Amino acid sequence: MPTRRTAGRWSSPALRLTWATPLYRGATLALFLSGLGFSAAAPQIASFLVNDLGGSLASAGLFYLTNLTAPVAGYLVGARSDRTGRRLGLFRLCALAGFLGWAGVAWSTRLWEPYVLSAVVLAFAGAATSQLFAAVHDELKRHPSPGDDGVVAVVRMALTAGWVVGPVAGSLLATHASPRAVFLATAVCTLAQIVPLGTQRTTHPTGATPAEHGPGVRAMLPLLAFIGLYVLVYAGESIKYAYLPIHMTTQLGFPSGLSGAIIGIQPLVELVLMPLVVVLARRTGMMRLMVLGAGFGVAANLCFAFTGTAAGLFAGQILMGGVWGVFATLGIVVAQRLLPTAVATASALFISSTALSSALGGAAGGTGAATVGLPLVFLVPAAFALVAVAGLVVMARTTGRGL
What we know:
The protein is mostly helical. It contains 18 helices and no strands.
């Protein structure tokens, strides 16, 4: 069992290496800005569509289906990156697309405009994150060290930290200004990602050459299987954020402060666990630890479905922090190792797959809520996570020793 001293031995060299290396430091700052901007805007978009542009609640819900273009855009950007090796050049173009997309949303005057911007322009913005992880991967291959996985964890923690701060900052800005101001701030954050990386350029690692052709379907099957299982685990997030606040407010009668504390504890637990996850993964293997993480997802959703108390919901959220402490730290690394000949493609497909999980969670959650109601709707993501546990057990037995 890793101790505080063990985690300290992990964190100090990884933090020093991350801060001393311009690419790692720049990627860390850029991903914090990315998480900050997007998480500030995400909770505001539905109310903006309804209150500012006159849309219905149903049409606001359909907005999230525009995210389904993100995996396609991610694949196109990733494949181009693997052919050319121009990770940071493509990152800058994607960040620029994000700036234009969010600025366009902020100035929208017709209901259809944000939908088109999200499906066509913002679909490419999400690929900026995957290009940074691909660039970090290349640099680690070029200058390997024993703490490589620790560097990836530090970079990934910056994205999570942005998600901790962003919703609060976005809510305050929307209250004192307007949702349009939030979207403009998100546009600025998205463009500002370029600044920490300056004019740096990347090339393929020594001995590697850009791929003339993309990986074949057979080579991608392990990655696609892993992403499918990840989608099942992540689908619970959209169900939870849609229905857990309603359950706490209307059925349990919790005050807003208590509900906010229950929702807010998950990312804090996630941040605390990330260093420990790296240490554990070195001892047990990444895939085995992900089996445990998905198991936490089963237990968490059972807490949401059956406890009906503040303590039970806190326990569920702490368990969910364990889920994402594992998957947020290790998921991108596993995806890249499952397709080592095309790491940008692997990174883009993995990161953009959250759009598929959101669509799955929205559809399954809506059907479940209409069928069994609250709080039993949380049995749906519990079942998804249980299937993921079984699939990850199989992958843990069949993948190589590096996982």
